[in-house]
UniProtKB/TrEMBL annotation:
<feature type="active site" description="Proton donor">
    <location>
        <position position="106"/>
    </location>
</feature>
<feature type="site" description="Raises pKa of active site His">
    <location>
        <position position="142"/>
    </location>
</feature>
<feature type="binding site">
    <location>
        <position position="104"/>
    </location>
    <ligand>
        <name>(6R)-10-formyltetrahydrofolate</name>
    </ligand>
</feature>
<feature type="binding site">
    <location>
        <position position="62"/>
    </location>
    <ligand>
        <name>(6R)-10-formyltetrahydrofolate</name>
    </ligand>
</feature>
<comment type="function">
    <text>Catalyzes the transfer of a formyl group from 10-formyltetrahydrofolate to 5-phospho-ribosyl-glycinamide (GAR), producing 5-phospho-ribosyl-N-formylglycinamide (FGAR) and tetrahydrofolate.</text>
</comment>
<dbReference type="InterPro" id="IPR036477">
    <property type="entry name" value="Formyl_transf_N_sf"/>
</dbReference>
<dbReference type="GO" id="GO:0005829">
    <property type="term" value="C:cytosol"/>
</dbReference>
<comment type="pathway">
    <text>Purine metabolism; IMP biosynthesis via de novo pathway; N(2)-formyl-N(1)-(5-phospho-D-ribosyl)glycinamide from N(1)-(5-phospho-D-ribosyl)glycinamide (10-formyl THF route): step 1/1.</text>
</comment>
<dbReference type="Pfam" id="PF00551">
    <property type="entry name" value="Formyl_trans_N"/>
</dbReference>
<feature type="binding site">
    <location>
        <begin position="12"/>
        <end position="14"/>
    </location>
    <ligand>
        <name>N(1)-(5-phospho-beta-D-ribosyl)glycinamide</name>
    </ligand>
</feature>
<keyword id="KW-0658">Purine biosynthesis</keyword>
<dbReference type="InterPro" id="IPR004607">
    <property type="entry name" value="GART"/>
</dbReference>
<dbReference type="InterPro" id="IPR002376">
    <property type="entry name" value="Formyl_transf_N"/>
</dbReference>
<feature type="domain" description="Formyl transferase N-terminal">
    <location>
        <begin position="3"/>
        <end position="178"/>
    </location>
</feature>
<dbReference type="GO" id="GO:0006189">
    <property type="term" value="P:'de novo' IMP biosynthetic process"/>
</dbReference>
<comment type="similarity">
    <text>Belongs to the GART family.</text>
</comment>
<protein>
    <recommendedName>
        <fullName>Phosphoribosylglycinamide formyltransferase</fullName>
        <ecNumber>2.1.2.2</ecNumber>
    </recommendedName>
</protein>
Amino acid sequence: MLRLVVMVSGSGTNFADLLSRTQTGEVPAQIVAVGADRECAGLDYAREHGIPAFVEPFAAPREAWNHRVVDQIEAHQPDLTILSGFMRLLAPAAVERLAPRLLNTHPAYLPEFPGAHAVRDALAAGATRTGASVIVVDAGVDTGPILARERIDIAADETEDHLHERIKVVERDLAARVITDIAGGALPLTAN
C-alpha cells in the first residue's frame, strides 16, 4: 500500500474523493498527510478525518520556502506526493528532491493549456474539447511526462465553473487509476 502526501490550496474536493477511494480499498494507498501553502477547506477536511495536516505559508525567499515544504513532505515518508489543486510552483531543487514520485493533476489535456488558468484558457481559445491529465512534475510548468490523460467535449454555452466541475470528475478517475497502477507495478515512474 502506497503512502501518499497530498498538497492542496483550496476546497480539497479532489483530495476528498481520493481519500474516499483509499478508505474503500478502491485505491491501494493511505493518505498519511495533507499539506498546503495556506489555511484552506482542504486542510479542514483532512483534520476532520484524522489525517495529519501541515501549512507552510509562502514567504520569500522562494528557495527557503521550497526547502521547508519538501522537509514537511519528507517527514511523512511518502511513496508519492500528489499536487492536487496546489497553486504554488515548486522550484527545480524541490522537484528534484521528490522526483519522480511527485505527481500533478491538471484540468486540461496536456500539453494543451498548461498553467494556472487552464479551464479559462480553453474557453477563451474557443476550444471544443479539453480534458484532464496526470503528470510527473518536472522543472517546467505542466511539462512533465504524461502518465494519463482523457478528453472531454466543451458545450457551446458552458461556463468556466461548470466545465471545471466536469473536468474534476475525470481528474479524480485518472488520479485513482494512476496511483493504483503505480501501486500494482503496472506503471513505473522515471524522471526525465
